[in-house]
Amino acid sequence: MRNKGRIVYSILCFLLFFLLPLSDSIKVYAATWGSVELTGESAVLMDADTGAILFSKNGEEKGYPASITKVLTALVVLDHCNLDEKVTFSHDAVYNVDAGSSNAQIEAGDVLTVNDCLHALLLKSANESANALAEHVAGSREAFAEMMNVKAKELGCTGSHFDNPSGLFSENHYTTAKDMALIAVAAFHNEKFLDIEKNLRHTLNGLQRLPEGNTIYMEHKMMLPDSRFYDKRVVAGKTGFTKNSGNTLLTLAKEGDRRLVTVVLGDKTPYHYIDTKALLDLGFLETEQQELEDSANYLERIRLEAVKQGYITAEDKLHFSGKVLLSLPKEASQEGLEFQFLLPKTEETEDTSADDMTANEESPTTGADASVSSGSSIRRLKENALPELVFLLDGRMVGKASLYKEQNIRVMFEEASPKTKAAFFAVTISGVTVIIAILAFLFGGGALYGAKNIVDERKRRKKWKERRKKRLEEMKISEEEFRKLMEERKKRKKH
């Protein structure tokens, strides 16, 4: 019996000696996503480069953003202004705010640059700065809110409506954690935004209340080295708080080449910084970016599907516009990876049945959501446009890619109009000299045309604002009343 025990013991030792080292090399193939316990009512962790949602808690439920709204405000301002433009603060901009709300000691009549205003907006969360910037860009806070909603829609937001530029509470001012994450990703890709946010302090000069200057400081505690919440990975972000919304927090973080964004809404404890750190740890420690494996095979499958759906001809070749990255749990397999086409953004069709004011004086900024393609949707594609591609694993979006096509010359010629074919032959016969002359003409004409379009667009926007203001005065209604009237008309048409 003693000998048998020794034999069994020896076998066990042998197995442990040889098999344990192998266990360290076993790869995790199943895409098992990590999880964390959070106190916030809703939250999202998103990869800023792939667009993949790495974690979500009630990510598409309605919530109130408070001052993280100002990130969207900043993006709209950066789209329409130069940093050195001068902003004059009106009495309404300074005093039409909630008592005790965040401010930067700016007084009516003060004149600051857009750069100064954005620092006050993002570092100090100054509500008077949000109001002044809105008036500077759009003429009123109401008109600016319309621009905010257009911008949000362009970024893919589907569950949000913004009613003011500051984030002060309104039942009609709401968002989702997912939508705010999309806005945060856009901010991460905006160099001017990052340049402002990297400054932990900024001095506002020329203020009536503080002639010696007012130095404002970053309020996101994860960016402050002397804070117990400091996290060296955090490069930008925005805080928010109202009684109705609780604490909200939007955070941009980077480690190595990876860029992640987090959003926490409705944290009443408050533990929003602790929640954010837990999300960042989950993202950086438990997930990774993988390059698409066997990309040539996927590209051929994608090409065949694109031919089937009518995006390209059978003779066209497809290419990825760059390296395709996927966000996955660490060491997870790409087995079972699928793809879907998304429709590119198109111009919305104007409602010509509305009254003259809405039909002819509609704001020039438009956009539409991207949606999964179907056979009936193909006709909406712009000529020669290719849809964006998303990759899914177990029904979860883990990456995206842009495509471009290498079109067959013969097919292009066959599809050309008789005039185009005639021009082609003319160019061929005329030789290199004619080609050079045509290119020079097109380049010069295009530059002049582009410059003229910019001037015309500015004039059109100015006329539109003036005409709209006059019509509203004649009708003796406010911007808000008119907007509500239009919404009611649209609802009646739908029914």
3D structure, described in words:
The chain is α+β, with helices and mostly antiparallel strands and 495 residues long. Helix content is 42%, strand content 18%. It has helices spanning 2-24, 69-80, 91-95, 114-122, 127-138, 141-154, 177-188, 191-197, 272-286, 295-308, 356-360, 409-415, 418-430, 432-475, 479-494; strands at 42-47, 53-57, 86-88, 111-113, 201-204, 214-217, 234-242, 246-255, 258-267, 287-291, 317-320, 325-329, 338-342, 388-393, 396-401, 403-406. It has a 5-stranded antiparallel β-sheet, with helices on both faces. The protein has a 3-stranded antiparallel β-sheet with strand order 13-14-15, with no helix packed on it. Strands 3-4 form a two-stranded antiparallel ribbon. Strand 14 and strand 15 (396-401) form a beta hairpin. The longest helix has 44 residues, at 432-475.
Brief account:
With 495 residues, the chain is of the alpha+beta class. Helices cover 42% and strands 18% of the residues.
Major β-sheet strand ordering = 2-1-9-8-7
Q: Count the helices. How many?
A: 15
Oligomer classification: single chain
CATH class of the largest domain: Alpha Beta
What form results from the Cα inertia axes? globular
Break the fold down into its secondary structure elements and pairings.
Elements: H1 2-24, E1 42-47, E2 53-57, H2 69-80, E3 86-88, H3 91-95, E4 111-113, H4 114-122, H5 127-138, H6 141-154, H7 177-188, H8 191-197, E5 201-204, E6 214-217, E7 234-242, E8 246-255, E9 258-267, H9 272-286, E10 287-291, H10 295-308, E11 317-320, E12 325-329, E13 338-342, H11 356-360, E14 388-393, E15 396-401, E16 403-406, H12 409-415, H13 418-430, H14 432-475, H15 479-494
Antiparallel strand pairs: 1-2, 1-9, 3-4, 5-6, 7-8, 8-9, 10-12, 11-16, 13-14, 14-15
